[in-house]
C-alpha cells in the first residue's frame, strides 16, 4: 500500500497518480492542502527522505504567500516544520510513502518506480 500526498491541480501529482493506477498497486490519496500534515508527520517524512525542511520547501510559494522563511540552520528546524504544517503549500509534492517506509518526492520516473516497487 502506498500513500500519496498530492495537490490535484499539480501536473507532477497527476502524473504520479496515473503511474500508480497503471501499476495496479494499492494506494490512498491524501490531499495535503485539505488535510495538512502535522509537524510530527513532516518530521517523519524528512527523516525517511534524509532531508532538512528547507530541502523540501517550495520557496517560490513562500514568496507568493508573503511568508518570511527562517534561516536554513539546524536551530531553525522546528520553525520550518511548524511553518510547513501551517502552510502546506510550502511542501514539495507529490510525496509517496510505501508500507515498508520507502518515501520519495515523486517528481521523476526513477523515484516513482522506486516507491511503486516497494509498494
From TrEMBL:
InterPro entries: Arsenate_reductase-like (IPR006660), Thioredoxin-like_sf (IPR036249)
Gene3D superfamilies named in the record: Glutaredoxin
PROSITE patterns the UniProt entry points to: ARSC
Pfam families for this protein: ArsC
Membrane spanning residue stretches: none
Domain of life according to the entry: Bacteria
Family: Belongs to the ArsC family.
Name used for this protein in its record: Arsenate reductase family protein
Organism: Nocardioides vastitatis
Amino acid at each position: 500500500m502506498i500513500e500519496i500526498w498530492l495537490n490535484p491541480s499539480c501536473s507532477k501529482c497527476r502524473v504520479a497518480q496515473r503511474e500508480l493506477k497503471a501499476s495496479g498497486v494499492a494506494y490512498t490519496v491524501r490531499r495535503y492542502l485539505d488535510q495538512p500534515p502535522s509537524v510530527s508527520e513532516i518530521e517523519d517524512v524528512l527523516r525517511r527522505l534524509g532531508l532538512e525542511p528547507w530541502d523540501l520547501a517550495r520557496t517560490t510559494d513562500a514568496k507568493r504567500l508573503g511568508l518570511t522563511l527562517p534561516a536554513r540552520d539546524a536551530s531553525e528546524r522546528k520553525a520550518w516544520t511548524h511553518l510547513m504544517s501551517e502552510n502546506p503549500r510550502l511542501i514539495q509534492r507529490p510525496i509517496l510513502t510505501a508500507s515498508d517506509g520507502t518515501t520519495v518526492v515523486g517528481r521523476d520516473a526513477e523515484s516513482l518506480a522506486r516507491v511503486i516497487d516497494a509498494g
